[in-house]
Design a protein that fits this description.
Layout: E1 2-8, H1 11-22, E2 26-32, E3 37-39, E4 44-46, H2 49-56, E5 61-62, H3 71-77, E6 83-87, H4 95-99, E7 103-108, H5 120-126, E8 131-138, E9 148-155, H6 162-185, H7 218-226, E10 234-238, E11 241-251, E12 260-263, E13 268-271, E14 276-284, E15 290-291, H8 292-297
Parallel strand pairs: 1-2, 1-6, 2-5, 6-7
Antiparallel strand pairs: 3-4, 7-8, 8-9, 10-11, 11-14, 12-13, 13-14, 14-15
Helix pairs in contact: 1-2, 1-6
Length: about 300
C-alpha cells in the first residue's frame, strides 16, 4: 500500500481524493487544503469540499495559509509519505517537501502544455476550444511545467459551461490517475517533457474580463457567458447598474452592439457585433438570479426595443 499526502481544495479535487480513497492501493496519511473562507453575502465561514470529504473519512487535515516555512510543513515531512498527489490545491509546493518524497504528481484540468495556471476550464470555453482534458504530470518548482505522465481529452459542446465541464473533467482526472499511477510508481511509464513552444497560460479570471463587450460576435459573447458560469459570472450594465447574465443562447438578428432587438413577455434578444443573443438566466442589481421571463415580468417591465445594455 502506497502512503500518500493529498493536496486539493475545490470539488474537482474532492472527486480525485474520493477515487484514491476507494482504492486499496493507497493510504492517505494527511490531506492539505486551503483555509476555510467566508463566502456569500452573509460571509459565512465554509469548509472546502476536500476538507469536508477528508473529515468524513476521519483523515488528518492541514490548512496552512502558506505551506512554505509553516509549522505544518515540518509535520507533513515527518509522516513518512512515499508520494504526494495534488489537484487544484492553489499553492506552490516547497522544494524541501518535494525532495522528501519519492514522487509528486498533479492532476491538471487541461491538455498541457496548453493552459497552465488556475483557470484552464474557463479559458477552454471562452476561447471556443473543441476539446478539453486532463493531464497527470510531475510536480516541479514552476507552475504546471512538469513532465507529463498521461493525458485524456473530452469534446466540448455548446451545452457545456464551467460547471458541466468541471464535473466531467474531475471524473476524467480521477479515473486517469487511478489507471496510470501504479504503473508510473513502478517505473513502467516515462514522463515526457512539455514542448515549450506550445505553452499557453490561463490565469485566474480578472474582474475586468467578466464584463461583456457587445462589439464581439454573438459566438464570442456566448462563449464568455458559458465560460464564466456558474462562476464568476459575466456581466454588463443596464441603466447604469451591473446586470449579470448567467445563461444565453445564440440567435439571429442585426443591430447596434448591446441593443435590444426583440422583446416579449418571455424573451429578450440583444444584438452583438455580429448576430444576437437570447438571454435566458439573468440577475439584475440587488436581485436574485431569475429566468428572463420572471425578470421581464418584474423589474424589466419598463424595457423597450431599442434600449441598450452597457450604456
Amino acid at each position: 500500500m502506497i502512503k500518500l499526502i493529498f493536496m486539493g481544495t475545490p470539488d474537482f479535487s474532492a472527486r480525485v481524493l474520493e477515487g484514491l480513497l476507494t482504492s486499496q492501493d493507497y493510504q492517505i496519511l494527511a490531506v492539505v487544503t486551503q483555509p476555510d473562507r467566508a463566502v456569500g453575502r452573509k460571509k459565512e465561514i465554509k469548509m472546502t469540499p476536500v476538507k469536508e470529504l477528508a473529515l468524513a473519512h476521519n483523515l488528518p487535515v492541514y490548512q496552512p495559509e502558506k505551506l512554505s516555512q509553516s509549522p505544518e510543513l515540518s509535520e507533513l515531512m515527518q509522516l513518512g509519505a512515499q508520494g504526494i498527489v495534488t489537484a487544484a490545491f492553489g499553492q506552490f509546493l516547497p522544494s524541501t517537501l518535494l525532495a522528501s518524497v519519492d514522487f509528486a504528481v498533479n492532476v491538471h484540468a487541461s491538455l498541457l502544455p496548453k493552459y497552465r495556471g488556475g483557470a484552464p476550464i474557463h479559458y477552454a470555453l471562452i476561447n471556443g476550444d473543441e476539446k478539453a482534458g486532463v493531464t497527470i504530470m510531475e510536480m516541479v518548482q514552476e507552475m504546471d511545467a512538469g513532465h507529463m505522465i498521461a493525458s485524456r481529452s473530452t469534446a466540448i459542446s455548446d451545452q457545456d459551461n464551467v460547471g458541466t465541464l468541471f464535473d466531467r473533467l474531475a471524473l476524467l482526472g480521477r479515473d486517469l490517475l487511478l489507471e496510470v499511477l501504479p504503473a508510473y510508481v513502478a517505473g513502467e511509464i516515462e514522463a515526457q517533457p512539455q514542448d515549450p513552444n506550445l505553452v499557453t497560460f490561463s490565469p485566474n479570471i480578472s474582474p475586468a474580463e467578466e464584463r461583456i463587450d457587445w462589439t464581439k460576435t454573438n459566438r464570442q459573447v456566448f462563449n464568455q457567458i458559458r465560460g464564466m458560469y456558474p462562476w464568476p459570472v459575466a456581466h454588463t450594465y443596464l441603466k447604469g447598474q451591473r446586470f449579470k447574465i448567467h445563461k444565453a443562447s445564440l440567435a439571429e438578428g442585426e443591430g447596434q452592439p448591446g441593443q435590444i432587438l426583440a422583446l416579449t413577455k418571455k424573451s429578450l434578444l440583444v444584438a452583438a457585433g455580429q448576430g444576437a443573443l437570447a438571454l435566458e438566466l439573468v440577475q439584475a442589481a440587488g436581485k436574485p438570479k431569475m429566468t428572463i421571463a420572471d425578470f421581464l415580468n418584474g423589474s424589466g417591465r419598463d424595457l423597450a426595443v431599442g434600449d441598450f445594455f452597457d450604456k
